[in-house]
Design goal:
46% of the residues lie in helices and 19% in strands. By secondary structure, it is of the alpha/beta class. One of its GO terms (cellular component) is cytosol.
Length: 210
């Protein structure tokens, strides 16, 4: 007898200091997992080259964002480097209730807010092997000035101080290994008894009644 789909999706929350490789790891994880979907956040940040509205972010102006905050439309929101980011609560709940596993790529402030509203969420913090490696990665991107890089490094030190708030910690030294560890976390959470019981309700019932 075919397994039933889980009635509730799993919410994965992934955070990291800027330059730790979070976005690349998340992209590779999603490409290899058709059952995991990225939650698309709202932002006031200017759209970068190659970014698509509704796919990478929902790009809105400051007034629209503030109206959504006033309407309590966000399950979490934060202001980072002068820009605002937020996750729409209604969309998040609807997707999870439909059985879809979701991944939120947000900073520690947003992750803390999500844990308050979704204590069952699974949180992962990605760290670089060292601060010197982080500095080299930021400079290697060639996107920011020295002043911006110094600001990001100062911010990274603060972000790193929140690692203990997360359930899982992944060091992104070797990309392939970090990706494998991230995939293992997703697999392990899906194999928890509560998740498997929901998916395998009928087969389990059939075996016990036979």
């Amino acid at each position: 007898m075919a397994a039933t789909k889980s009635p509730q999706g799993i919410l994965f929350v992934v955070s990291a200091p800027s330059g730790a490789g979070k976005t690349s790891l998340v992209r590779a994880l999603l490409e290899g997992d058709a059952d995991l979907q990225l939650s698309v956040s709202y932002t006031t940040r200017a759209r970068r080259s190659g970014e698509i509205d509704g796919q990478h972010y929902h790009f809105v102006d400051q007034d629209t964002f503030e109206q959504m905050v006033a309407a309590d439309a966000f399950v979490e929101y934060a202001r980072v480097f002068g820009n605002a980011y937020g996750t729409a609560a209604a969309t998040l709940r609807e997707t999870l209730d439909g059985g879809q596993d979701l991944l939120l790529e947000i900073d520690w402030q947003g992750a803390r807010q999500v844990r308050q509203r979704f204590p069952e969420s699974v949180s992962v913090f990605i760290v670089p092997p060292s601060l010197s490696a982080l500095d080299a990665r930021l400079r290697g991107r060639g996107q920011d000035s020295d002043a911006v890089i110094r600001e990001r490094m100062d911010k990274a030190r603060d972000e790193l101080s929140h690692w203990s708030e997360y359930q899982y910690l992944v060091v992104n030294d070797r990309f392939d290994q970090a990706l494998s560890e991230l995939r293992s976390i997703v697999t392990a959470e899906r194999l928890r008894t509560a998740q498997q019981a929901a998916r395998l309700r009928e087969p389990l019932r059939s075996m016990l009644e036979s």
